[in-house]
Specification:
Elements: E1 2-7, E2 10-14, E3 19-23, E4 32-41, E5 47-48, E6 52-62, E7 66-72, E8 77-83, E9 86-96
Antiparallel strand pairs: 1-2, 1-4, 3-9, 4-5, 4-6, 6-9, 7-8
Length: 97
């Protein structure tokens, strides 16, 4: 069985036991959360309604640095900015119907 969940404005296809990286979620490491389900499918590929996905927060972290370089020619303008996006690693537990 697998499901399509939505969190942080993105959608993910998950199955029990998967570990996924999502946008930062509020909650402590080890706490159990419930994720919003868009759709769920059984092993035959049939749509199942009313499913919920239970997951456990495995850890929090920050992604690789993305360097943004702004430049305007002939004006001596240069600006460098770095950004690291926060994320939460989640382990999918059960998909309950």
């Amino acid at each position: 069985m697998h499901a399509i969940i939505e969190t942080g404005g993105k959608q993910y296809r998950v199955a029990p036991g998967d570990v996924i990286r999502v946008e930062k979620l509020a909650g402590d490491v080890g706490s159990e959360i419930e994720l919003a389900t868009k759709a769920a499918f059984n092993d035959g590929g049939e749509l199942v309604s009313g499913a919920t996905v239970k997951a456990t927060i495995v850890g929090n972290g920050r992604g690789d640095k993305v360097v943004v370089f702004k430049f305007k020619r002939k004006k001596q303008y240069k600006k460098t900015i770095g950004h690291r996006q926060s994320f939460t690693e989640v382990k999918v537990g059960d998909i309950l119907v």
